[in-house]
Every structure is written in C-alpha cells, then in structure tokens.
Write a structure and sequence with these properties.
The protein is α+β, with helices and mostly antiparallel strands. 34% of the residues lie in helices and 16% in strands. It has helices at 3-10, 24-35, 54-68, 93-110, 131-136; strands at residues 46-51, 80-87, 114-118, 143-145, 148-152. Strands 1, 2, 3, 4 and 5 form a 5-stranded antiparallel sheet that branches. The protein is globular, with a radius of gyration of 16 Å. The two termini are 25 Å apart. The mean pLDDT is 94.
Length: 173
C-alpha cells in the first residue's frame, strides 16, 4: 500500500492528548500542508492562525464552553490549535477550509501527531463572547471559523475507540 493510502486508512481522531510540545518545525510543515489544499478557483481566501500558548487555548475553550453551555468542554487539552478562517463572503470558504483541515490531519498523522476536528465555532464565532477573543488572536472580523484542528501527541494509556468503516458505495459500470 502506498504512503498516502496508508495515512488515509490509519489516521484516527485523538481525543486524549499528553502534555508534550510539538516542535515548531513540525507544526510549520503541518500548516504548509493546509496551505497546499485545493480551494475554489484557487483563490485561497483563508488565513491560518496557529496557537501554542496554553493560556490562550484554555481561554478559548472556556469561552466556547460558556457559549455552548457545556461546562466540561475543554478541546481535549491540545498542545496546539490550527484555526483556518475564511472570508465571510467567500462562496467556497467552508469547503476550502474542510480541504485544508483534511490535509492538516493527514500531515499531522504522518509525523505521529494526533488530531481531532473541532467544529463548535462555526455557529458561534460572531457572538459577543467569542468574537473579541478571536480578534485578539488575529482572526479578522470579516472571517468565519468553520472548524479547528486540535493537535497533540496521543495519550496511549487511554483506550482507543474501535474504528468501523461506514457509508455506502455503489458502483455503476
């Protein structure tokens, strides 16, 4: 099996991270993978914000928890967050960011870094509680956040959920 297929078939979401920093060179490569994702008409109207500051991550998690009414929400305590945002007026912004996030997840996996998609911000990024925090970390007012990549090294002491392939395939020949 080739490397790409192996990465696609073996990557899993990680929801238990250990407290270990991801080297900046690896994070840079992971972000670069996102920047090389396809985008509608090649416009690449996105911006990527990388957060490794644990206090900022905790503040964002706490604000999201308050906004969604889930006191237990903690984003799984990642070592880093990559937040692709996109122009609000971009016709394909959501799809472009989804492609970028998939590249980010596969690149992270190739380095042994765990990842999970966090989607809570897409409905709340413009609320009075969340938008000021997003602005402080450099996400433009005219951008929307559709999803985030939480990254870290997996806590292997926690049991893994068993993976089952899903969906339906129909061949028409």
């Amino acid at each position: 099996m080739n490397e790409v297929m192996n990465a696609i078939l073996t990557r899993r979401s990680v929801r238990n991270f250990i407290d270990e920093t991801i080297p900046e060179s690896i994070l840079a490569d992971i972000v670069d993978a996102g920047l090389h994702a396809p985008s509608g008409m090649g416009k690449k109207t996105w911006k990527f914000t990388v957060i490794t500051n644990k206090e900022v991550i905790a503040q964002l998690a706490e604000a999201i928890a308050t906004q969604i009414g889930s006191e237990d929400y903690d984003m799984y305590h990642p070592a880093a967050l990559i937040i692709p945002s996109n122009l609000r007026k971009s016709v394909w912004g959501k799809e472009d960011n989804a492609c970028a996030l998939e590249n980010i997840f596969l690149a992270a996996h190739s380095y042994g870094v765990g990842s999970v998609w966090l989607n809570q911000l897409q409905e709340i990024c413009d609320t009075e509680l969340i938008r000021p925090l997003l602005s402080r970390i450099g996400i433009p007012e005219n951008h929307v956040v559709y999803g985030m990549a939480a990254l870290g090294y997996a806590d292997t002491s926690q049991p893994k959920a068993e993976y089952q392939s899903g969906g339906e395939v129909q061949w028409v020949k």
